[in-house]
Amino acid sequence: MSETPSTTKKLYIKTYGCQMNVYDSERMAEALGGSGYTEVSSPEEADMILLNTCHIREKAAEKVYSELGRYKDLKIANPDLKIGVAGCVAQAEGEEIMRRQPMVDLVVGPQSYHRLPELEAKAGHGQKALDTDFPEEDKFEKLKSRPKAKRAPAAFLTVQEGCDKFCAFCVVPYTRGAEVSRPVERVLDEARDLVERGVREITLLGQNVNAYHGAGEGGTWGLARLIRELATVDGLERIRFTTSHPNDMEDDLIAAHGDCDKLMPYLHLPVQSGSDKILKAMNRKHTAEEYLRLIERIRAARPDIAMSGDFIVGFPGETDQDFEDTMNLVREVGYGSAFSFKYSPRPGTPAAEKETKMVDPDVASERLHRLQTLITEQQHAFQDAMVGREVSVLFERKGRMPGQMVGKSEYLHAVHVTDDVAVGEIARVRIIESGPNSLGGVVLR
Ligand code: 5AD
Ligand code: SF4
What we know:
Elements: E1 9-15, H1 19-33, E2 37-39, E3 48-53, H2 58-70, H3 72-77, E4 82-86, H4 87-93, H5 95-100, E5 106-108, H6 116-122, E6 129-131, H7 139-142, E7 154-158, E8 160-161, H8 172-175, E9 180-181, H9 184-196, E10 201-205, E11 214-216, E12 219-221, H10 223-230, E13 238-242, H11 251-259, E14 266-268, H12 276-281, H13 288-301, E15 306-313, H14 320-333, E16 337-342, H15 361-384, E17 390-398, E18 405-409, E19 414-417, E20 426-434, E21 439-443
Parallel strand pairs: 1-2, 1-3, 3-4, 4-5, 5-6, 7-10, 10-13, 14-15, 15-16, 19-21
Antiparallel strand pairs: 8-9, 11-12, 17-18, 17-20, 18-19, 20-21
Helix pairs in contact: 10-11, 11-13, 14-15
Bound molecules: 5'-deoxyadenosine (5AD) and iron/sulfur cluster.
């Protein structure tokens, strides 16, 4: 395993879906680094193409098949090219992918990608490799050591995977499996490693991250305790976490938003719908009112917090009134940002059985449009309100304009300046303008 490969092979990874896939792609590239691969940015120059896929909505899965179709000519021109499918489509569809696209050499699920080097060695020239197990061994243990090379200052770190909530629309409990938390020490070690590599902001990831319950000193630790411990790591300046479920928003986590300086004032807390009837049908196990009261408590702890959320429109049985309830909830919360989706039936989920209650697609599209318009208005209002304010910005990269540097504010707004700042620097910035997707400012020295 540890032999040094003599030739360098090129790996192209395309990532779909959520931040956890971004994290997984980074880990897969690192794992294949041991087999002599370095990452490249175009499929044309690759010896191996890996699609890290998302299965959350039908469109997301279909995109994968159309992308695979595009690689046909590359495979004909270079029969040595290996094509792999990883992620949640791999998990959900397994061998079906190879049947639909015979040029796929390798299929690997999200829980078994530590076995990627062996699978890669096995695959190619008609040999197929497939692994969609939920193995006994912990993939993170197998992937323990990460390279020491410098990296960008903001990083993701998976602390929890899977979900036991079984929302009626969602494939996650099936593709990512049951809820599992990584032990505290493992998370701390990885965080320290990242900081040594130049990281100053870590976003803790989990499908249900606030249900984190990792083994730590003296017993099981919740997310708030983990965050407070991470806050003691020198050089780590900012902590975020995503995605949370309202029912796991415990008191100490709310309190941390008020008293832990390194925890950023931005919270992604999906509610999905503002109608109690729909929330019940979705198996969310909370009401709209409970969600609103929860936000009041979070805002009492951290008044300037930027709230974010996810919404589904056109869930089976959703009436005009149910949808109006969602619009009203959005008006009442006032989001800094939010994501909204048209309901997409996923095979194997309970909601997909309710075919007779399906909302007319045109009605659903119209609702989605109205909701997105409202959310965009709120997003712009929140962004415009930053003009004249001082924010703190972690600079992540050069911008498109000459001399421009781009970073993120504590509220997750993209901020650009033309001052002399370095990547990885955190500076106070006065916001002077609000553009369509970003803010402009000047660094205060
Ligand atoms: N259809 C539409 N949107 C979905 N989501 C999850 N499953 C579905 C589905 N079947 C949305 C939810 C979730 C986000 C990640 O994706 O809003 O919070
Ligand atoms: Fe899916 Fe619900 Fe679990 Fe989120 S909480 S991953 S929406 S089942």
